[in-house]
Design brief:
Length: 348
């Protein structure tokens, strides 16, 4: 969809992102974490969840929608369960704490879940499922978002893009990973298309009258469409419940998105469930079995046709972008403008 790109060193992008966040009042360690999350998304070709988001994060910090120095607090009613109040933190800060908590409880209990309230956008979900897989955990992760999706057949924005991330550790290559929006396209891709002057694929969105549109401006005013017709819509509705009903987090239709009002404290809800493979047969058994499945998927095509297991395309992109990333031109221009606005003596 995006045709105009510029290449930049990964180290330069990371350094710039950290500097921008620190200048916005984010502590250095949290800035490093958030920058790594965003840059990795760009390395994997997921530009909708990469540095495109950084100007929005900093504007939300400036206007109070995101708290750069939150006080994270946990409560619990069971040994393998916890609720995290993120105090309007950057979503990456909230999620890193939640992932660490899941690993801590799951190593003892075999399975653990953390529900998060009062958070914000956490970037690409695979950034978190990869950490769990590296520790031998299978994972289920979802989140609420701002209101951008109408249920199947509807025209009112009731749902978010309600991301779903599933991960399983494998003994070869990399984890088996599905990381997707439950709308036909991520909302960040609508923003990216608008910034780049591109059209959306057909079937992604409808305008305010419910008519199909490929215009990103009409899509932003109208609604995104769930993937998979009524079945995908059903999955999206249930993910909304999983993400927000366990805590005081808001549903999408109760939320003012920071894309619309950067001063809004979105109160996003996240849910992470981690399953420790070692508590079942064994970690090595599960990792070998997942690797077998992964390879069987890759071998399922006719001779000469490459078939990807879930997660393979993103890993291939990341490998090719290990040292240099091709960013959409509009994202690079926004980063330069932001660095100038913050009087940073650093450029890309």
């Amino acid at each position: 969809m995006l045709h105009t790109h510029q290449s930049f060193a990964v180290t330069d992008l990371h350094r710039l992102a950290v500097s921008i966040l620190v200048s916005s009042g984010v502590p250095a360690d949290d800035a490093d974490l958030t920058a790594r999350s965003l840059v990795q998304a760009d390395q994997r070709g997921i530009f909708s969840h990469g540095l495109l988001r950084l100007p929005l994060y900093t504007e939300a910090i400036r206007l109070g929608g995101i708290n750069p120095t939150p006080t994270l607090s946990y409560s619990s009613k069971a040994a393998a369960v916890a609720v995290l109040d993120a105090d309007a933190a950057l979503g990456q800060v909230a999620m890193q704490s939640a992932v660490d908590k899941v690993l801590e409880m799951g190593r003892v209990q075999g399975i653990a879940a953390v529900a998060v309230q009062n958070s914000s956008h956490y970037g690409a979900g695979a950034f978190w499922s990869d950490q769990l897989a590296a520790a031998g955990f299978l994972s289920f992760i979802t989140s609420s978002t701002g209101p951008v999706v109408a249920p199947h057949g509807g025209t009112t924005k009731v749902l978010g893009t309600n991301p779903l991330t599933l991960g399983a550790p494998a003994s070869a290559d990399w984890p088996l990973t599905a990381d997707l929006a439950t709308s036909n396209g991520a909302y960040g891709k609508v923003i990216a298309a608008r910034n780049e002057g591109q059209q959306l694929p057909e079937g992604w969105a409808v305008d305010t009258e419910g008519n199909p549109t490929t215009d990103p401006n009409e899509a932003a005013a109208g609604s995104m469409i769930p993937f998979g017709n009524h079945k995908g819509s059903a999955v999206s509705v249930l993910l909304e419940a999983f993400a927000s009903s366990l805590t005081a987090a808001t549903y999408a239709y109760e939320t003012v998105d920071i894309w619309s009002s950067p001063s809004s404290r979105m109160n996003n809800g996240h849910l992470i469930v981690g399953i420790n493979a070692e508590a079942f047969t064994s970690r090595s058994h599960t990792e070998a079995r997942v690797a077998d499945l992964q390879q069987r998927v890759r071998d399922s095509g006719p001779a000469g046709r490459e078939i990807h297991a879930p997660g393979d395309p993103e890993r291939g992109e990341e490998g090719a972008a290990a040292t240099s990333v091709r960013l959409p031109r509009s994202t690079a221009e926004q980063l330069r403008a932001l660095a100038l606005k913050l009087s940073l003596n650093i450029s890309i």
